[in-house]
Amino acid sequence: MIHHIVFQFMAILSGILLVLLLGAGIVLFLFSGHLLLVSVVLISTFLLFLFIGYFVIRNFAKPLDESVRMIKQFTAGNFSTRTYIDKPKSTGQLNRHLNELGESLQKTVKLSQIQQDQLETLIENIDSSLLLIDMDGHLRLANQTFQDMFHIKKGDWFHKNYQYVLHDEEVRNTIHESIVNETIVRQSVILPLGIERRYIDIYCAPIKHGSSHAKGIVVVLHDITELKKLEKVRKEFVANVSHELKTPVTSLKGFAETLLDEEMKDENIRKKFMTIILRESERLEALIYDLLELSKIESDTFQLNWQEVDLSKIVDETLELLQEEAKEKSIDIQSGAEGHTVIEGDPFRLKQMFINVITNAIVYSPEKGFIHVHVEGFPRTVEFIVKDNGIGISLDEIPRIFERFYRVDKARGRNSGGTGLGLAIVKHLTEAHNGRIDVRSEIGKGTTFKIIFPRSQE
User: Fold this and answer.
1) Least enclosed by CB within 10 Å: which of 95, 119, 137, 321?
2) Is the pLDDT of residue 250 over 60?
3) pTM
4) CA distances (Å), origin 211, targets 93, 216, 320
């Protein structure tokens, strides 16, 4: 392009020069009368001027060609291209500024790319569903959390109206209200997602600058199901604690008032009432102890006293402690061990777990029943197994037996002096040892508890 302009300029300049030389030639011929000499001088002068003019203009045209090449590269998005700075002041200054412009554009594009990558990473890894909807109701952006929550692919939502993507009426109405009124709208809904019911907190906010009209809205769908579950557990826990404390406290108060009655002269009745008071006091003490233990185990500061422990020895010590309880019901407890049964664990907490599991087996086993306790070592794990022939647990109840205060047989569990917190403590201590629990049971035939411990803690 520059060369084409140069040639046009040279042609015009040549024409002007030729006219001037012809005029000068006519004047010289009139004065000298030598036509040949005048012609040679004029032609030589003309060619010399053309030669000099070509090289002068070419020196200016070459850096301009480089400038045009750089501008074309910038237009194509290549901001890394550079050019040499030539000697002519004007063109050299132009190329210098173009190099500076290229460097500035390159830095701007790089910074923009970094910011875009950061924003995309943030959007894709946020724990809530995020949507960007324009004022026509079309979905412009949806993060991966949204696609996972609603089991939807990009092709099913991109640039489609939210009315056809989101099927819940409450969600659609909340978004519609935000779009129409261009205001922040917040709403909590319950969404049926698959076989689950999820509690969702919806937050819609318009995208606008100052007092101008909104360009779209941002929708955040935050899953608060776990918070709702925790709130429900907390309420149930308070209710259960109140109920469990009420019974022994009422008994203590009632029998104490009776004993204080001056007309109470029968020593046998007095002794009976004192025995009941003692039993209820022990039950209350056990409940408070288990509540404190559960609170300690669930706290962030809870730590185990790690050391090498032989589970078979812990089982033997536990059975010695529970021997009298088993004899009262004529229950035959058999124990055995197989393989290498040493793990890394806390001996005090392991004994606490074993006492709770075996005590449960004794409580829910019939008179003259049997309990088999077995420890078996494997290359990477050691298993603690307790099998009884008790009342059993239904499949529906198995997931709930580790809840606080849950009892399979409420009357039998409470009469045994149990607090209903034993298996909750076992569950938390098993998780603290990085183990897992497996429960198999059949109504009327018994239950098998299996706790699987890793041999070493990495």
Assistant:
1) 119
2) yes
3) 0.49
4) 45, 14, 79
